[in-house]
Design brief:
Elements (H helix, E strand, L loop, with lengths): L16 H9 L6 H11 L6 H13 L1 E4 L7 H12 L13 E4 L4 H7 L6 E6 L9 H13 L4 E5 L2 H5 L3 H15 L3 E5 L8 H13 L4 E3 L11 H18 L4 E3 L7 H14 L12 E3 L2 H14 L12
Parallel strand pairs: 1-2, 1-8, 2-3, 3-4, 4-5, 5-6, 6-7
Helix pairs in contact: 2-10, 3-11, 3-12, 4-5, 6-8, 9-10, 10-11
């Protein structure tokens, strides 16, 4: 299928398989010890009082409230949409979440549930989570989601092709999915837990951005190793450096395994100290999560009342 490659200052590196390979393998190698030490040191920052309250509200506004189960029903998706719009029904000052994320067949239901609220509807596509399907099937998946009203598409890369070194195939698929997504923003999921090395995560980050990703995303949440401060730090370095070279800003979405307010705030510190304040906005940073929101709400209630309310005071997803 013919596609139109994105235009930016690094377009020449995608002119052929050999130039793309040369560029990706020419990226600086990752110092794993240094990366992990840096992520760990940022995780020790202490955020208190008004700064903590601000961070909690910011984190709530960055959540992609997610349900991606075979047992999803229209009722569950409607309830999720209601929670995204009013996360704490007892306190209407609570920010809305950024989006709800569902399978393509639930997009229309989700869209109706959040209508008029500003909450986006994101849909996974491209044979999520494995990505093992022919390109025409993946593109049909994307078009169905967009036709149903999806504002954002979360696609998975072909990890088998990437690990085999077939970078141009991965690049071409991202370009094709971007085109099929139309006006919907495209999040490209790498499944970092399957990429094995930090060098591969850096290469995948640049590959996704070169192909036109609006966001790069760590994980599907369906494997053992998902978002970590280290792999998110590495991806934030990549988007920072990509903007410096091209002038194009790309978002980052860690997903899977982020369950507590303490964890979320650690990630926000990593964002601020690595990419900078420009990324501290839900247009450029998201949390892919389901259970995280409840903990954020409980901590928010504790700051407001001085009492820890417990899980009975928030809705069960």
């Amino acid at each position: 299928m013919p596609t139109t490659a994105p235009a930016h200052a690094l377009t020449d590196v995608t002119a052929s398989d050999s130039t793309l390979r040369r560029f990706l393998h020419g990226l600086p190698g990752v110092d794993a010890v240094g990366l992990e030490a840096r992520a760990a040191s940022l995780g020790t920052r202490s955020i208190k009082t008004t700064a903590k309250a601000y961070a909690i509200d910011l984190a709530i506004s960055m959540v992609d409230l997610t349900t991606l189960e075979g047992a999803d029903t229209p009722g569950k998706v409607r309830a999720l949409g209601a929670k995204a719009v009013h996360p704490d029904p007892t306190d209407r000052t609570t920010p809305t979440t950024a989006a709800v994320c569902v399978y393509p067949d639930m997009v229309a239901t989700a869209k109706a549930a959040v209508a008029g609220s500003g909450v986006k509807v994101a849909s996974v596509a491209t044979a999520f989570p494995a990505g093992r399907a022919a390109l025409d099937v993946k593109l049909a998946d994307v078009r169905d989601a967009v036709a149903a009203g999806a504002d954002e598409i979360d696609m998975v890369i072909d990890r088998g092709a990437f690990l085999a070194g077939n970078y141009m195939k991965v690049y071409d698929e991202i370009v094709a999915v971007k085109q099929a997504s139309g006006a919907a923003r495209l999040k490209v999921i790498f499944e970092t837990g399957e990429l094995s090395t930090y060098d591969n995560i850096r290469r995948a980050s640049w590959l996704g951005m070169l192909a036109g990703a609006d966001f790069i995303k760590t994980s599907t949440g369906k494997v053992a190793v998902n978002a970590t401060p280290s792999n998110t730090l590495l991806m934030l370095e990549a988007v920072r450096d990509f903007r410096a070279q091209t002038g194009i800003q790309v978002g980052v979405k860690p997903a899977g395994g982020i369950r507590t307010t303490k964890d979320a705030i650690k990630f926000l510190v990593v964002v601020n100290e690595t990419a900078g304040e420009d990324w501290l906005d839900n247009h450029w940073f998201r949390f892919g999560a389901s259970s995280l929101l409840n903990d954020l709400l409980m901590q928010r209630q504790k700051l407001a009342t001085g009492r820890y309310s417990g899980p009975d005071y928030v809705t069960v997803d």
